[in-house]
Amino acid sequence: MSTITLTVFLINGDFEVHTAGCRDIARTVKSGRVGNRFNIKVGDAGLDPTEYAVIADLWSDIISENVPETYSTEAKAVASYADNTKFYDCVKVLEPLGKPKAKTGQKLGTGPKAAVSQPMGSGNRETPKPSVKQAAKRDLATAVVMAAAAVAKDPGAYGLDLADISQDEAAKMVAQWLHHLPVNRDNWPAALPKPDRSDWR
Asked: How far apart are the first and last CA of the chain?
């Protein structure tokens, strides 16, 4: 197939994917919800044209931190983050998730995010222990969540006036924004509700 450009928005911690030139892009920009915007390519000169490949590329840094510690395989991680990746109707060129091509993974990491590891077979291999660097990253992520919880619990102490946002609403928003961080879930702060995601239940 030819190369197709997709436009991706990062909004409140989730990704929204459009085909470049889609009318909904202008509406999304005008909504003021956009945190970041970039393009990725699929097809001959880009990622494999599947939703699996796009999700794996967009969430590559998080997936690499959580396989195999949180998810036993890349495929399970991709399935989890599908809930946080919205493909608009204009994106018709991608094979839907659930039917990944056998070759999926060979072009991962060619997008704007860091490369994702190749799919891991289940096998009978012993689960490797996290490296010192991975453990440090997890500690850092946990500290970030703790700091955010403190702000959500007492925004006034940080010079914030959240107007009509209640403390409970603020806590829920922060939890959803930070759900993808590779935190130590045993130390998730009591001030924040656990993210309402299937892999957290």
From this structure: 40
Overall residue count recorded for the chain in this entry: 201
**Between β-strands 4-11 and 85-87, what pairing exists: parallel, antiparallel or unpaired?**
unpaired
Ranges of residues in the chain whose predicted pLDDT is under 50: 99-128
Sequence-ordered list of residues with C-beta below 8 angstroms from that of 39, at least 6 positions apart, any chain: 5, 6, 7, 8, 20, 112
Give the tens place of pLDDT for each residue, 111-130. 333 333 333 333 333 444 55
Whether 21 contacts 88, CB under 8 Å: no
With beta carbons less than 8 A apart as the criterion, state whether 101 and 95 touch. yes
Write out the two tokens for 179: 């759900």
DSSP, collapsed to helix, strand or coil, labels residue 86 as strand
pLDDT at 128: 45
Radius of gyration of the chain (CA): 18
Tell me the C-alpha distance between 177 and 196, whole Å: 11
Whole-number Å distance between alpha carbons of 1 and 66: 32
Q: Cα–Cα–Cα angle for 40, 45, 48, nearest 5°?
A: 70
